[in-house]
Fold this protein.
Amino acid sequence: MPPVSASPPRALLFGGTGPIGRRVLARLQARGWQVVALSRGEAPPLPAVEWRQGALPGSAGPGDGFDAILSCGPLDLFAQWYAATPTGPTPVVAFGSTSVHVKDRSPDPAERALAARLREAEERVAATAAGRDAAVTLLRPTLVYGGGGDRNLSRIAALARRHGLFVLPHDARGRRQPVHVDDLADAALAALDGPGRGLRAFDLPGGETLAYRDMVARVLASLQPPRRLWLLPGPLFSLAAWTARALGVHDAGPAVLQRMREDLVFDAGPARRELGYAPRGFAPEAWMFEGGSI
Ligand SMILES: NC(=O)c1ccc[n+]([C@@H]2O[C@H](COP(=O)([O-])OP(=O)(O)OC[C@H]3O[C@@H](n4cnc5c(N)ncnc54)[C@H](OP(=O)(O)O)[C@@H]3O)[C@@H](O)[C@H]2O)c1
């Protein structure tokens, strides 16, 4: 996307301290952008980055005078801020989640509420952008890894490190497409070069589709030392999972456990064509799962 003036282009970034946002921030710096980045806390000084302390949606500050606005944090909070804050026709790139397609049919009311929040946030961002004649690109990652400390694979790695093994039901064969944070950040930067107006939305799966149990086995094999995967028959697993939850070993509810058997597969084709998206295969290494809390 061309800058509005000859001086360095300016980006307003939300979520720049998160796993995806840190990668987006580094790419903006490398491309010569001046970045104003919001954080609720104290953030470390970085070249070409002005940290703004505040919180979405109410105290995030003004939104005018930028060449691009990027949201790498909670989409619902960003949508509220965006609707309430003048930005003119500045283009927007915002991360949502493929959960918007998946969790609306979950048996868990909290998951259905999350899907509804994401759907409403997408619609709100799109409607606000349309009213301002601004281009908006919505990016929906699948299961994200590679930034450490995530709530998915890093948490599984942390549990396996603590207990020496990880347990799954034998039929945990639902297909997954784990996506690396660097591929997502590349997609966000590619989206900045998009058309000057209109709405685009892309699902962003990883570059390899594999069964849930194979994905977890690969994570466990990458740890130092490698941890073992135990596959249990369904009823025995249910009993073990229920007992472990009662003992506080994990907090995965029935909806999470059932989803291990379901395919969560998305089409990267549109993103490949329009963003040059080329996600890598799943080749995890132990350091990618540091910082996972249990
Ligand atoms: N990680 C995944 O598995 C995954 C999967 C699919 C989609 N996504 C989506 O991708 C996006 C980025 O995910 P992520 O895992 O990198 O980050 P995240 O954990 O969703 O968000 C963390 C970032 O959001 C900021 N943030 C949180 N609440 C805030 C508030 N009230 N006001 C201002 N900033 C706030 C944090 O900033 P400070 O703490 O510095 O204030 C931090 O930079 C999100 O939209 C997420 O839903 C993530």
